[in-house]
Amino acid sequence: MSSNKSNFFHDLDGLDYSSDEEQSTSGFSGFLKTSSAPEISKNTLRASQSRRNQPTIKPFRVIPESKQIFKGLKFFFVPNNIIALARKLRVQRSQEYGALWAQTWSSDVTHVIVDKGLNFDELRKVLTPEQLSGEVAIVNQDYPSDCLQFGQLLSVTQTRFRVDGIPTKATRSQSTSKTATNPESSPRIKDPRRRDRRSPTASQDEGLSLATPSTDNTKNPTDPTINTVDQPESNHEILDEMVQKVKSVNYLPLDDHDDDDDVLYSILQDQPEAEKDNDQENQSDLNVPEWQKNFTCMQKHDGAAKSDNPNTRTIEILQKMADYYSKTADNWRTVAYRKAIATLRRQNKKISTKAEALAIPGIGCRLADKIEEIVSTDRLRRLENTDITPEDKALQLFLGVYGAGYAQATRWVAKGFRSLEDLKTKAELSENQKIGVDRYYDFQERIPREEVGMHGKVVRDAVHAVDSNMEVIVAGSYRRGAADCGDIDVLITKPTGTLESIRILMLDSVIPKLVRQGFLKTSLSVSSHDDGSKWLGASALLGKDVWRRIDLLFVPGEQIGAALLYFTGNDIFNRSMRLLARKKGMRLNQRGLFKDVLRGPNQVRLTDGSLVEGRDEKQIFQILGVPWRPPEHRIC
């Protein structure tokens, strides 16, 4: 256990709970009383080190001076102590790569590294306005590790390094810091969306290559501008490659929410020949270029392992890791694990060793190590370490509270809260969060398929009682054939209905009636925007006290096909379809498929384009040249 934890900071597959452990040891309020944290006494360190199961820390490593990217920089950490293991490792790593650790404030501090559990208001309780107003760069805890990932300093103005609540002026002042002004320290990241205008084929796309990998061996392999994802022969894990690629485009402006993370999922589109579905009969009649056949949406994905799949136990544990990363909003790791799982489902033999795992396209060193560990020990230490401390367990608990994301859960842990009772009695909760705490275990429970259908029937009967021409469709994982669901998505539409007419009918007639019947228990959100209308809340069947999360989605008849595609999922399949549309100069979202979409530099959308199809789901597949995939074949 200790050896795994000591690699905690070095392993990109680990998450950083820097704001957790120190709160139980020193107390958050006690820390705020000191504007510059004093050195920790030997007694305190001795007491901390004597705790049971305390992981050991590796000794300092000797890093060649040429690789000490932090040389000449001075870091002040907030909190500025090493009681927390994760922060201790972060401080040590920074020092190994040349940084000086300012244990008390000094005028030559170049960077303030803030734990993610703290916001700018809390930072101001630690440092004075004068200390914050200079040219010092104020960044969150991701900054040092990301710099080490790229092998050089990154711009401190990137959004992902921004401390919550920091004023715009303070953000601008960071651009004058040493890392931002030094031209040699700014990463030369290749624009991942720039195309070679001489050819429209996807193989020319320098950042989102979908075809033949580059064979240019003249480039420096350590140069962060090189796209390592296009080199399948590399021994680096695809997980790390995905992380680097996503980070390299993190600063780019994105479209609206319809395609806000196509960049992330674009790196999943190429399917190695050995992994392709034997589904040629469905593709043989399609006149599509070869590069398009590599897209995920071009393959059949039924989500089922073979009945005699020998990798069932490995898949089970990897799925738990994927679920964990999904909760923490770590999208790229979630997808990496899901891709590995999909690959293992297609294997006819048991993958037992690292070498065997590495021979499979899409699995690299670290995932291969984990597969070997699972097979040899029937466990995964990384998974066990997700709740090794009370702080870890509290974070996992709080991530399940409706209305609270990862940032909020981390702040609660940082303030010393450890239980739902703590949240009820001590935390300032929004109305939705209060419901999320009160009905925590209801919302965490999976909903059996039969019960989802019963909820849908109650809504359908109420809608038809008002207008028999309305259509009510249960979407989401239920439509994909799942045995159970996390929540209930219900689409309400009418072939000739407008969005406004459907919205008025639902909000003025149907929903009040369902509330009076006792079926709808509470409203969590009502949205009415240009991109659609929806009612989010909770429901319960008659005679049952278990509340279920239910979303009622209002869709005009002319958009129902696109909406069905969008709200059926799954997310990887959807984003593959949207990326394919973009590659063809089109745009796909929950409202329809649009053509003649003009985009400027960095793929910024200049025009919305004109609607091609929105009513017929199958027609959208046909226009894009994708074989029709029924919902049960969209489980990527």
Automatic annotation (TrEMBL):
Biased composition (Polar residues): 24-35, 170-184, 201-232
Location(s), subcellular: Nucleus
UniProt keyword Nucleus present: yes
All copies of domain BRCT, residue ranges: 65-161
Pfam families: DNA_pol_B_palm (PF14792), DNA_pol_B_thumb (PF14791), DNA_pol_lambd_f (PF10391), HHH_8 (PF14716)
GO annotations of cellular component type: nucleus
EC number assigned by the record: 2.7.7.7
Name of this chain's protein: DNA polymerase
Source organism phylogeny: Eukaryota, Fungi, Dikarya, Ascomycota, Pezizomycotina
